[in-house]
């Protein structure tokens, strides 16, 4: 009964009446970049005159199974389109990114008032390569290393779901999302972090990251800005020191040059003081000896 042409026709008419979307629920398909996808088309239609496949708004393939002929509209698709044995299901290979979109198959038959339509949405995805991990700012207060690890794809990152696994000695934890907050005490046993990325057609994971490796950069307190400061300050101090030394030498040279004058001037000062005090009396032997004892 179900197979009788009249009941089928009735069903199709009903489908058409109830709205075109209901019977032809859109089929969601995914395909791997460079791979192949099959658009399943099953219809109990007697006397199929033709089947027309459209991609978005362009004509892709026309098929007349009774003749039989298959006409692929565009040359570049000739090698990519095929039909499985005796079926109406279209197979598209060598998938490209721009093959993503809406596909329609319409079956025309003299036994149908309206063509039978099946809609598809195809998403072409890349095979995921190894996800990359970047580390956020790190703080090392009180022997605890605190930072964020961010996982991302360098390309083909659409519809990617990220999860993290933190593997400790005792337990392992799973974290949803691309950002993993880390707080690791140095005294604790080491931990390993792995990022898993998956899209509808593939998955991949980062290489394992050790907490001790991650945190060793800032293990000692010299943080990069301090190192930079030292690198700038040390030469400055050295230059200042050299300059000071140089000036001191110059002064010493000058003093050495002026040394005899210096002595005599002091002597003469003393002497003149003497003479001023004692009027114009000449320097006595005692005075001379005294000054010698002081200045020589
Ligand atoms: C298609 O059918 C032919 C014979 O009709 C058979 O030799 C072949 O293996 C079939 N191919 C597939 C993919 O089923
Ligand atoms: C899709 O991209 C390929 C190259 O990767 C190009 O040859 C082709 O014309 C594009 N198709 C459409 C419909 O834009
Ligand atoms: C096909 O349509 C989809 C949206 O439905 C669009 O994103 C895509 O760019 C279209 N592709 C071409 C080749 O027109
Ligand atoms: C992960 O990606 C690398 C390239 O980045 C690739 O060599 C490897 O085969 C991929 N692993 C899986 C399981 O796909
Ligand atoms: C530092 O750690 C010690 C012991 O682990 C704790 O007693 C102290 O309160 C911590 N200090 C701060 C500022 O977190
Ligand atoms: C880690 O990321 C969260 C948001 O996800 C942010 O609030 C926090 O400040 C970040 N921590 C560090 C150390 O970057
Ligand atoms: C992570 O997400 C999955 C589903 O996406 C959920 O089942 C699981 O409970 C989540 N885990 C955490 C720790 O939030």
Automatic annotation (TrEMBL):
* Main localisation: membrane
Q: Which GO terms describe its cellular component?
A: external side of plasma membrane
Q: How does it sit in the membrane?
A: Single-pass type I membrane protein
Name of the protein described by the UniProt record: SLAM family member 7
The region annotated as signal peptide is 1-21
Species classification: Eukaryota, Metazoa, Chordata, Craniata, Vertebrata
Localized where? Membrane
Cited InterPro entries? CD2/SLAM_rcpt (IPR015631), Ig-like_dom (IPR007110), Ig-like_dom_sf (IPR036179), Ig-like_fold (IPR013783)
Where is the sequence biased in composition, kind Polar residues? Answer: 258-276
